[in-house]
Amino acid sequence: MSESNEEKKDEIQLIFGDKRLDGRRFDELRNIKIEAGILKRADGSCYLEMGKNIVVAAVYGPREVHPRHLQNPSKAVIRYRYNMAPFSVEERKRPGPDRRSVEISKVSREALEAVIMKELFPRSGIDIFVEVLQADAGSRTACLNAASVALVDAGVPMKGMITSVAVAKADGVMVLDPMKEEDNYGEADIPFAFLIRGGKIESIALLQMDGRVTKDELREAFKLAKKGAMEIYKLQKEAIMKKYISESVENG
Ligand code: CDP
Fold first, then answer.
1. Centre of ligand 1 from the C-alpha of residue 180, in Å
2. Mean pLDDT of all residues in the chain?
3. pLDDT at 3 over 80
4. What residues contact 69, with CB distance under 8 A and at least 6 apart?
5. What is the pLDDT of residues 18-57, one digit of tens each?
6. C-alpha span between 7 and 243 (Å, rounded)
7. Pick from 109, 117, 127, 125: which is nearest to 73 by CA?
8. Measuring CA to CA, how many Å separate 212 from each of 22, 28, 54, 153, 227?
9. Whose CA is nearest to atom 9 of ligand 1?
C-alpha cells in the first residue's frame, strides 16, 4: 500500500459487522455476466462482467506463427495479451504495454498453458487477447475467466477450465472477490486461478500476493477462493452451453 493510501485507510471503513462496503457477505462474489461468441472475426470470444470490471477476450488459432522463427516443432506457441483501455481506469492509462500488463500477461499465459493441449498443434500459435474496458480490481481474474471461455468457444482442446478469483484482507477480515476500495485500502490482495477438471479443482495455476497475512488467513483465503471459483466455473459452463444451444438451433 502506498503512503497516501495508508493515510486514506484511516478514513475508510471497509467492514460493517458481517457486511462489506457494497453490502456483500465476506464469501460473496460480485455479480457476474458471461457471454460466449460475441465477436464475428475471432475464432473464439467472450464478454465478461465481474462487478464493475468489463472485459472482452478474443482467441485466434491454432494458426501459423509469424515470425516463423518463433514456431516450436513440438507444440503450439501460446501468446496472451492483457491490455487496459486508456478509459478503463479513473486516471487515464497511457496506451500500450507497461510493466504491470507485461507481468499480468506472462502469469496469465502460464496459467492457461496448464490446460491447453499444445502438443496437438506443433508449429502453430494460439493468440489470446484480452481487453479491459473498465477495471475495478481483480481485472486479471476477470480476464482469465473470459479467456478460458473464449478458448473453449474457439474449439481449442483443453484438459480443463481455468477459473480465477481473488481474495483480499480488508479491516482484518478475509473477503472474496474484492472490489476497488478493498483492493486499494485492504491489507492484502491474493489472486488465485484454479485448474478445474471434471467439475473438481485439480490444482492451482496462479497464485500471487501483495501484503501480509497469517497462515490461518491464507488457509481461509484458499477456502474462500475455492468456493468462489466453483461458482464462477458454473457460470463459465452455462455461457458455453448457451452459445452451443443457440448455434444448434440456428443450424437446425
Ligand atoms: O485489476 P487487478 O486487481 O488484477 O490488478 P491490480 O494491479 O491489483 O489493480 C487493481 C485495480 O487498480 C485495477 O483493477 C484498477 O481498478 C486499478 N488500476 C488503476 O486504476 N490504474 C492502473 N494503471 C492500474 C490499476
1. 8
2. 95
3. no
4. none
5. 999 999 999 999 999 999 999 999 999 999 999 999 999 9
6. 48
7. 125
8. 24, 22, 29, 38, 22
9. 137
Q: How far is the CA of 136 from the centre of ligand 1 (A)?
A: 7
For residue 115, CA distances in Å to 66, 84, 100, 161, 202 come to 23, 25, 24, 7, 11
Q: Is the pLDDT of residue 252 over 90?
A: no
Helices 99-113 + 139-153 axis angle, to 10: 40
State in Å: Cα 88 to ligand 1 middle. 10
Cell 461458482, residue located? 231
Axis crossing angle, helix 215-250 with helix 139-153, rounded to the nearest 10: 30
Predicted TM-score (pTM) above 0.70: yes
Residue 95, classified by CB atoms within 10 Å of its CB into exposed (0-12), middle (13-18) or buried (19+), is exposed
CB 112 within 8 A of CB 128: yes
Q: Which atom of ligand 1 is nearest to the CA of 139?
A: 1
Please report the domains of the chain, with CATH numbers, ordered by start residue.
Answer: 23-250 (3.30.230.70)
- What integer is the mean pLDDT of 124-145? 98
Q: How far apart are the CA of 54 and the centre of ligand 1, in A?
A: 13
d(Cα 242, Cα 35) in Å, to the nearest integer?
8
Tell me what pLDDT residue 27 has: 98
Q: Whose CA is nearest to atom 12 of ligand 1?
A: 137
